[in-house]
UniProtKB/TrEMBL annotation:
This is Methyltransferase type 11 domain-containing protein. Pfam families: Methyltransf_11 (PF08241). InterPro entries: Methyltransf_11, SAM-dependent_MTases_sf. Residues 177-232 form the Methyltransferase type domain. It comes from the Eukaryota.
Length: 301
């Protein structure tokens, strides 16, 4: 038997059973396994959390989903005309999770594995190489939030500082790209332990879907970024579904782009540039690869 906490999932569909409990059908892929296993689970998230999360974006955008409106190949266009509502559109229940036990319990087990496939990792590393400041500059500082044992930065990239903020000290201590690290649960306390205007770049790799206080965290990101600094939020369609927020597990890839863009838009009004999306999904001739997207914005000078 494989523990649920050791699995990453590609969630394909979400429905509400007659019992009112959410049932999410997923492809489970244990770390380092090439084959996927189809499973499902049901739980006791408030029915409103699932129904409102699944329907909310469609209601906001003329009774249709962003994913339907944009089309998968045109996911980058989602943020070209986002049609932001005047006020923050989400409700507290949209940020509920199936497993509301302390994240410190879930992440106490070290996982020295990668959570996206090699093609997606290579695409993200290549993207970082194209957008990061010049290597070798002592004045450049980067923050990797929700960090782990690897940050997927280009090999040999050496800014003056790379700070890592994550949940597992063993994993962080193994990350050779970090110059310093701190252990903190941002879902308990969103305050970043850094001074104002410290970092040129902030990265977050496949973890934005777990944040249950996104506005507060994005406000903190804005605070610690230098004027003109940029935050890059990358994500795929794989997750630990018990820990991802209901808004995420009930929606699709293009919807996720809109959701992350909204975090930038509403957290600090006019404090970030208009968020943009880059679809960096690798092109492969044969087989499967994980989709990969980056939503990013810069702190207004």
């Amino acid at each position: 038997m494989i523990a649920l906490s050791n699995l990453r999932f590609t969630c394909s569909t979400t429905r509400v059973a007659r019992t009112g409990q959410p049932v999410i059908k997923c492809l489970a892929r244990p770390p380092m396994w090439r084959n996927a296993t189809s499973i499902s689970y049901s739980g006791c998230i408030d029915r409103r959390a699932v129904l409102s999360s699944a329907a909310l974006l469609g209601a906001l955008l003329g009774q249709r989903s962003v994913a339907v409106a944009a089309g998968q190949p045109e996911v980058e266009k989602v943020l070209e005309d986002p049609r932001w509502p005047e006020k923050w559109p989400f409700r507290p229940e949209n940020f509920q999770r199936y497993d509301e036990s302390p994240d410190s319990f879930f992440y106490s087990q070290s996982r020295f594995v990668t959570h996206i496939d090699d093609n997606a990792i290579n695409a993200l590393t290549k993207f970082y190489g194209e957008v990061f400041p010049t290597s070798g500059l002592e004045s450049v500082a980067i923050l990797d939030i929700c960090s782990s044992w690897v940050s997927h930065y280009p090999k040999g990239y050496t800014p003056g500082r790379v700070a890592g903020l994550g949940m597992n000290e063993q994993e962080l201590s193994r990350n050779v790209q970090l110059t310093d690290y701190a252990v903190k649960d941002l879902n308990v306390d969103a305050k970043l332990p850094y001074a104002d205007n410290t970092f040129d770049v902030i990265t977050n790799c496949v973890s934005v879907d777990y944040l249950n206080k996104p506005l507060e965290i994005f406000q903190e990101m804005h605070r610690v970024l230098k004027p003109g600094g940029t935050a890059y939020m990358s994500f795929s369609n794989r997750c630990f579904p018990t820990k991802a927020i209901s808004l995420w597990t009930a929606t699709g890839d293009a919807d996720h782009v809109w959701i992350v863009g909204s975090y930038f838009h509403y957290s600090v009004p006019e404090g970030f540039s208009a968020p943009k999306c880059k679809d960096i999904t690798p092109k492969v001739l044969f087989g499967h690869t994980d989709p990969m997207y980056v939503v990013y914005a810069s702190k207004q000078a």
